[in-house]
Amino acid sequence: MKVLSYLHHHIHPYGIGYAAHSIAVGMNGQNISSEIFSIHSDLANGSRFVRQAIKSSLLLRVLSKFVSIERIRRFTEWRFRRYARKFDVVILWPGCSLETFKYLKSLGKIIVVESINCHQKFAEKLLSEEELRLGIGKTHLIDESSIADENAKLAIADYVFSPSPQVTESLIASGVSRQQILPTSYGLSQDQILPVISDSNDKPVFLFVGSVIVRKGIHLLLEYWHDANVDGKLIIVGKVDPSVQSLIEQYSSDDSIEFIPFTTDIESLYRLADVFILPSIEEGSPLVTYLALGAGLPCIVSPMGGDGVVSDGVDGFVIDPHDKQKWIASIQLVAADRELRHNFSQHAHERSSDFLWNNVAKKRRQLLIEKIGNEH
């Protein structure tokens, strides 16, 4: 079975591009030949499994100064269509046009959608309700046309990779058949499984990593942290979106909270932390949570932030994002109980190897063989 994944981005050695690359390359073996196609890949290194619309990084930089990213992506998609003709299965990551879906279907290709977040109809409802609760204007970018576009693509697709139980339920609620859904996960690399260092901080350090936006529950986190009133520190790593600036200003004088802009040196912050915390309103399966397991951090997360990754009561706590009292009690408990943190840490670290990219890719390969193998 020949499988081609498509991501219309420049693939960097981190983030969702790294995830797509790791999965596609790792699926090779046991009756599957797998490649990935993108604008350009920093991970190509002459790999026979990597295809690029623009091979030269210098040429891409020059083109980017004179040509819009939209035109570069259209060119990439055109090249991808031509290359995809010799493959049996195409795995389409977000951003691929509806026209290409239709074209691939006309060629008789089996189409698998990579659903990295909840269905947009489901997400729009959650986020709109949260904005109404906060009494603020619209902060998300989901509209009726984007929902219709997703529905049209899902109607054409044969299968959907779902990285979490939350995504699965959102797809079913939006009309996707359970039989079409291939449950899976994301993961981390071997070098992201860090040595566990016993609590060395006088005061426990809690770590949030992600965009500082309503979708990530930043307003809830700040409220819960403030009201928990623990003797510790909260480090928030990520770019602060203007839409939430007014929500966080009231905490600017709190010395127990530190804001750090986006950084690629995230490993040092995971090493520094004692607890990972993420009360997301809507997600897919955030890569930062897998990194927390790899660092052996106890996790306090919402279902969107860790369902399917964090085991409640084993690696930490999985709590409804709006259960304020439970969040406060959990923060206080984990901050005060060093032995509990140690136990959670050990379990998290032991489980992290289950989510190594090679293991994730092998499970996906098996799913494709079980669902599609008999057709080829």
Search tags:
transferase, 15 strands, Rossmann fold, alpha/beta, 15% strand, 376 residues, 7-stranded parallel sheet, Glycosyl transferase family 1 domain-containing protein, 15 helices, globular, Glyco_trans_1, glycosyltransferase
Write up this protein.
The protein is an alpha/beta fold. The protein folds into two domains: about 1-185 and about 355-375, Rossmann fold, CATH 3.40.50; about 190-355, Rossmann fold (3-Layer(aba) Sandwich). The chain has helices at about 15-25, 55-65, 70-85, 100-105, 120-135, 145-155, 165-175, 220-230, 245-250, 265-270, 285-295, 305, 325-335, 340-350, 355-370, and strands at about 1-5, 10, 35-40, 40, 50, 90, 110-115, 160, 180-185, 205-210, 235, 255-260, 275-280, 300, 315-320. A seven-stranded parallel beta sheet has the order 5-3-1-6-7-8-9, with helices on both faces. It has a six-stranded parallel beta sheet with strand order 12-11-10-13-14-15, sandwiched between helices. Helix 1 packs across helix 15, helix 4 packs parallel to helix 6 and helix 8 crosses helix 13. The mean pLDDT is about 95. InterPro entries: Glyco_trans_1. Pfam families: Glycos_transf_1. Keywords: Glycosyltransferase, Transferase. It comes from Methylophaga thalassica.
